[in-house]
Amino acid sequence: MALEDLSHNFLTGRLEDLVRWARRASVWPASFGLACCAIEMMATGGADFDLSRYGMEVFRNSPRQADLMIVAGRVSQKMAPVLRNVYDQMMAPKWVISMGVCASSGGMFNNYAIVQGVDQIVPVDVYAPGCPPSPETLMHAILTLHEQIRTGEILRRPGGAELDAPSDAADSDSPWTPEITSTVRMGTPK
Amino acid sequence: MTAAATYPTTTGLDGETICFVTRDQYISAVAALKDDGYEMCVDVCAVDYLGHPGRELPEEIPAARFEVVVNLLSLSRKQRTRLRVQIPESDPRVDSLFELYPGTEAMEREAFDLMGIVFEGHPDLTRILMPEDWEGHPLRKDYGVGRVPVQFKEAPGPR
Amino acid sequence: MSAGTRDVSDVKRLSELSSETREGPQEMLPRSATTSAQLGRESGAVLRLPEGHVLDPASLDVERPDDETMIINMGPQHPSTHGVLRLMLELDGEFVLRTKPVIGYLHTGMEKQAEELTYVQGATNVTRMDYLSPIINELAFSLAVERLLHVEIPERATWIRMLMSELNRVSSHLVWMATNGMDVGSTSMMIYGLREREMILAFYEKTAGLRMNLNYVRPGGVAADLPDGWEDDVEIICDTIEARTYEYDDLLTGQPIFHQRMEGVGTLSAEEALALGLTGPLLRSTGVPWDLRRAMPYLHYDEVEFDVIVGTYGDNFDRYAIRLNEIRESIRIVRQCLEKMPPGDYRTQDAKVTPPPRGRIDASMEALIHHFKLFTEGFHVPIGEVYTAVESPRGELGMYLVSDGSPKPFRLHVRGPSFVNLQAVPLLMRGGLLSDTITVISTVDPVMGEVDR
């Protein structure tokens, strides 16, 4: 990730903004529709709630070509390894939106068959509640993700060693904590 | 119907005939009903009656823990018939209906997977809904639902 | 299965999970292990073998010995939007020999969950099964519970249920048209189908509050009355969709490429369909005019006029034509519901089953107690068992409900039509091309929520 290695000055600041704009303006989702939320995801891609306005209407079938995995639906015990496999195949930078309550926390199915939240398997960036979330909710989640990409807050994720900015502190033993310099605005970005 | 009348029967809530047969009579009863005009086997399922307060059975049929329920449909007569077979807990095996109705293949696999009833003569009796290496039969009454305790702020505890 | 830690940086556990992708011996037996009786059933009435062949496994292997065939895996994550179905295909070049559908990737434990929820909450569980036609799932469940309860439903509630069910059938078939068009290659059909469906979903949102998974049809009636001005909304829906079905005719039926891809592909005979227990458009495409709404009517289907659409050849094109015309027939039924809707209650007045109106809770102690009991404990259903079946867009949706006198079902078994219809897939694909597998899956119309429950 060469971007974060550059020392920050006026030119690289502009470059960072450009790269972040490019990243958020053409997020390509990997198709991972599982259950009812998948139908709402299809409806969001349809004509009334057009996802194409964000450049996202191409659902890439190959995970290697995708940036975003929208886990739409309930993840069963048999599907969990497949989910992780698909996530691993995606190229960094990659993001995950957990769509619906079943993906976020197991939803109404608190039983032996459903994984209680996909954040047990993959790191999630945005949780979209609803059963199923209406297309407006999904679009709000997508816009929140865009906002996170725009502020660069998303790259300061703990545990992602390759995405970390090189730290100036010589002390490498202390646990790294994220410093949020600006709050992420929830809602339509200006 | 003449075919079902040889076995103890009751009438269901929709007017359908419910036959109670033993495991030995099972295949011949279904074959007789099929010859009588029940072209389609709609459903084969298993029920675990552990903890049930008491169901109505004819006197000659002893109650057992499991029951296999077969729903048959006659398109020509627009009628349904149900067959109920008692399966003991110690020996949960019963003959497979695959030779008579090939469409019962997936239904019997599901009954095996979730309830543990072994269907003899089935071409491929493996788990169909749970992962292959799962242990236990989830729909049995002694198998817990697998609920994970959820922390709410003011709730006293799991339901 | 423990809850597991929520610490995502637990890399070791995650790498274990990612190496567990192969889930064990879902293996196909070698061809030599197939008995001739099974081969006969697989080939059935479809003439894919030359005449004069005795079904001897050894003689079949002369042309295609075991090591020249290839087994490939399709799914469970694949672009055809029919959910998480995995197919293991044995291929001889481009020709499909044998297929094994592997399911269970969406198993939700709904039958176990139903034993944990009361009958009042039961509709929320069952509605998420066949997520393209939620009202019809709820309808089957409610009819089963009401049969055990011996409670009478008022007329208006029944007609409202019919109206919503038929609109649901239209919306489900529109999604089918959209995804089928997409599978065949017509992206426009996807956009058209979803656009029309939005009109119906807007009406659902106005009536029930939700677009999908409505929890609207409950034991005792429906949850709320139709909103004011619903007649105009429904009439606009009917007129628009009916006119647009003729546009779909122009787009798809009139197109030679569509005909070539769908005609003669995936043919099925009536005997095979009955032996496999298939229902719905699959059975009707073979020529058997079996529709539960006509043969064993429930609600008030015997008081409305509609035709049962039947195919001739049992191929993909017949199933497409059946579903397109079923949209038109359902619109016809909706118009008749519009005319015949009686005034009255939208749910039964039996206070032991139906919660009281919210306003009355402040005024009457009895109403408060009923509300409390119904929503915490639920109503008790007498001991019994019932099998109720309705006609869902995919076939016969049955609920086998065993009750034990408590407020929760003792055993709820759902006979999902797609679960049984999927057994036709190996038969339909045999001898076809790899590219035909997509259209075959599409016209069988499996909804994996219902297959796996």
Structure description:
The complex is a heterotrimer of chains A (190), B (159) and C (453). Chain A has helices spanning 2-5, 10-25, 36-45, 80-89, 101-105, 135-151; strands at residues 29-30, 68-72, 95-99, 126-128. The radius of gyration of chain A is 17 Å and the shape is globular. Chain A has a domain at 23-154: Rossmann fold, CATH 3.40.50. In chain A, strands 1-2-3-4 form a four-stranded parallel sheet. Chain A is of the alpha/beta class. Chain B is an alpha/beta fold and 159 residues long. Chain B has a single domain (4-120), classed as Beta Polymerase, domain 2, CATH 3.30.460. Helices cover 14% and strands 26% of the residues of chain B. Chain B contains two helices and seven strands, in the order E-E-H-E-E-E-E-H-E. Chain B has helices spanning 26-35, 104-115; strands spanning 9-11, 17-21, 40-48, 66-74, 79-87, 93-95, 118-120. In chain B, the strands form two sheets. A five-stranded mixed sheet of chain B has the order 1-2-5-4-3. Chain B has a two-stranded parallel sheet with strand order 6-7. In chain B, a hairpin with a 4-residue loop joins strand 4 and strand 5 (79-87). Chain B is globular. Chain B starts with 8 loop residues before the first strand and ends in a 39-residue tail after the last strand. With 453 residues, chain C is mainly α. Chain C has a domain at 110-351 and 386-417: Orthogonal Bundle (Cytochrome-c3 Hydrogenase, chain B). In chain C, the strands form three sheets. Chain C has a three-stranded antiparallel sheet. In chain C, helix 7 runs antiparallel to helix 14 (316-340) and helix 8 (187-208) packs antiparallel against helix 9 (230-253). Chain C is globular and about 75 Å long. The model of chain C is unreliable at 1-10, 18-23 and 43-63 (pLDDT under 50). Chains in contact: A-B, A-C, B-C. The interface between A and B is small, with 8 and 11 residues.
